Fold this sequence. Notes:
- The radius of gyration is 40 Å and the shape is elongated.
- By secondary structure, the chain is mainly α.
- The protein starts with 37 loop residues before the first helix and ends with a helix.
- The mean pLDDT is 84.
- The longest helix is centred in the last third of the chain and has 28 residues, at 38-65.
- The chain has a domain at 39-66.
- The chain contains one helix and no strands.
Amino acid sequence: xxxxSKRQTRKVISQxxxxxxxxxxxxxxxxxxxxxxxxxxxxxxxxxxLVGSFVIVLVVLTFFxx
Length: 66
């Protein structure tokens, strides 16, 4: 029969976990989101004028073609 040997166990002493603390360093302020849509308004106005003028031209053409 084989000889039984006892295993030696070591006691591991756990050290307390130290979490990093947050310092009171203020983060840089992000600029507020302020987009400039003036060019979009100009384009939409131009499209509206073109659509209006085409509709008027079509209405006038219907009177002449009847």
